[in-house]
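Justification of resources, computational component.

The compute hours requested in this renewal are based largely on the per-chain cost of generating structure records like the one below. Each record pairs the submitted sequence with a full structure-token output. That output is archived, and it is also reused by downstream analysis tasks.
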Amino acid sequence: MTEQTPSTPPFRDPHLPFAKRIDDLLQRLTLDEKLSFLHQFTPAVERLGVAAWRTGQEALHGVAWMGPATVFPQAVGLGATWNTDLVRRVGEAVSKEVRAMRAHDDRVGLNVWSPTVNLLRHPLWGRNEEGYSEDPRLTSAIATAYTRGLRGDHPTYWRTAPVLKHWLAHNNETDRATSSSSVRPRVLHEYDLRAFRETVEAGAVAGVMPAYNLVNGRPNHVSPYLREHLRAWTDEELLVCSDAGAPSNLVDHEHYFDTHEEATAAALIAGVDSFTDHGTDSSQIVDRARKAYGQGLLTEADIDTAVRRQLSVRFRLGEFDPHYDPHAGTGEFDTPAHRALAREAAEQAIVLLRNDGLLPLAPDTRIAVVGLLADECKLDWYSGTLIHRSTPLEGLYERFGADRVEFAEGVDRVRLKTSAGTFLHVPEAPAAADGVRGAEGALDPALLAGRTDLPPLTTDATGTELALVDWGEGVLTLRAPDGRYLSVADDGYVRASADQPGGWIVQETFRLEPHEHGHLLRHVGTGRHVCVAADGVKVADGDPHVWELVIAERGEEAVRRVAERADAVLVLAGNDPHINGRETEDRTTLRLPAQQERLLRAARSVNPRTARTALALVSAYPYAVDTTALPAVLWTAHGGQAAGTALARVLSGDVSPAGRLPQTWYADDADLPGLLDYDVIGGRQTYLYFEGTPLFPFGHGLSYASFSYGDLTARADNGSLHVTFTVTNTGDMTADEVPQLYTRAVEPSVTRPRRELLAHERVTLTPGEKREISFEVPLSAFEFWDVARGGPRLEPGSYDILVGASSEDVRLRTTLRLEGEPGAPRPVLRRGLEAADFDEQSGVAIVDRTKTAGDAVTPQEGRTAELVYRNCDFGDGVTRVVATVAGEGVVELSLNGGAPVAVLPLETATATPYDYTSLGADVAVAGVHDVHLRLRGPLRLAHVGFSG
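The structure output for this chain reads:
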């Protein structure tokens, strides 16, 4: 027992367990004080000496939004390393920089909102850059490594407290605050939940953030899965932090509740503990919670539960034990080790997609470096401000010498001419006009305003030549000769003021719209046209000016000019992370923008017979590119501060590439499902189920070395699969290889993955070195979710064990028979049929049965829903069927695809979609049959029961 004194309350006693200390502090807080803890920005409780606190510090691939910090490769690039040790070290470096920055700026938070574990199901998702992989096991492995680095190794005190984003089934920016992801039980358990579960179970996660979208008709912020699944995976208290503005969305956009008091209470009871809404102003959320309590929608126990979870994180972070916290006052910032790690991560993220002998380049090669990304080091929305910067051009200058490298950006050089005969003119900027957006840090960079300290554009007789880039779909940027982009500030004037396109609403993009004998120039951010006024050029609603686009030089001309003098041409193509594919905006196509395709064709056309053109794609997502005529193709995500140096080291052969694709690269848009089709099984999505031929498969990546595989053994015992094999470097340089272990059910009773990743390891091998690789995989990894029993099942039978260098490059294989639990027909007499537990469907959307729990099904708008339930056992016979329905419409039941045996009409609409009624009909069915249901009209079906 620890003796207490009146001056040392128990919550201050570091020798007591956290739980007892939290109990003590909680009972000392008043109701009003506890209510104030529900908002992201929690005020201080001065009478108890409790400091102010906030949830949330972005740290996806470095400390973001708070000014200069080490910038590592984008998350999808970290996923492409397939290296959990590396990613753990990156997480460790990021968390140390968080601590170091907080020591000088208390706005920097220790509750980090990272990593993003949403699966990269669809490559057109605008936030593809934020995830790790399309595969749940690879995603969880990388996420677990990152969270362990963020957490630190101390058994009691955490360096930072990671929150996983975004729960759940969130892969679309289009209508993201109102769209519902229809997720069948098998997809839920085998795919979407798995990445979260395995990461949480690893023990380095402090909480999760629900996503904006709905799942099966119910907003994620009131999801019963938070209680049923998330909190069942760990004994730790998990802090659930809402996404920004999402609590208000429950009423304002989703219209799921009538009042904000109802919505706040429902979210809190469902498991949301901290409400991120209305910026730093906590008054509205606190007032809503107080009124909900007054109306009896909340109890003080509900509020206590949420506050307890916040306090649990704060105690783990050492806030109340500054003398015992091993991380207090420590931290490392922009150290040589962090710079080296940033370069190592950028090198390991590079994927060699194709190489017909062009790479690596010889030291005396004359190189033409061309393309819109050649001299860029792009940042994304979740980046910090660069301290160091290396572009591909700078890296190649450094590695090969400036005298052997020529550069052409490939922009179109243009002037914009008014109908009066004058030209758009960029005035000279004042001498002290330099500045980088966000360098000072901002809790909410969406609020950063454009610069107004520079003179607006004007017109004159000669004008200014601008660099025009079309980033696709007609979205343009215009750049002045001094490197600054044309931008629009809050006052509406157009200035050359931005160092890069950026911001929550990008103010540096325009569209040229054909009009009469010229073009209108529309500013995308405001939707207004550019016009000339007496006091400068600005955007306005009326009187748009007609512009003539005068082209001084096409980008292709500059590319051809330097390519003609080169031994090899390196084309750098890709995306700007703030344009056409980012948070709030999905892509519409896999194709490269037309301007970049023209530059690639120009580079190849100079001397196509020598085949000396390499394409390096620098992008946040996959592209569909014709690579058949290209001898070398590489891909890297935006690689952070050391991206250029890393690429040059790979091109020169100083480092052998060994990155692997973390998602399938499809060959054509026609291969893609609909963006809102979340049924990866029925839609045959990702490498798990895709039946076409990809451009490049999941796990693909080449090396400058060669590797042989052999000596495979596999056995199953004691609940695990044990696999060993050898990998030998048969090449002449030290290189990394990434052996990958997959499985495939040989004769499954239901649709199973074509192959599924079980384990992987990235290893470094010297020439001639042979290494034994061993994997131990729990047999639970072979289970699927059996909808007939409502739980996981290991199906007995034969399973292929596949070892190789990618999901398609299989080098070794064997087959094992695994014992399991045989399947059984559905016991429909005992359980009936839960509507969402179908085996197959078409035209179906899954919706919420009630606002708090359960699923139902309904036809998609304008369609007839078809559902199939296999192997339903009616025993000796049933005589009655009863359907639980709401809405209005018809349910038809047939057996084995035959004629209907029962038609159940609901002719009078129920009062609400949640007012269920029972429809019955006589039937005569015995034995085992496939049940087919057809739904017509705006009808919800929750359950079908049988009796007799």
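Residues 84-102 form the longest helix (19 residues). DSSP finds 18 helices and 50 strands in the chain.
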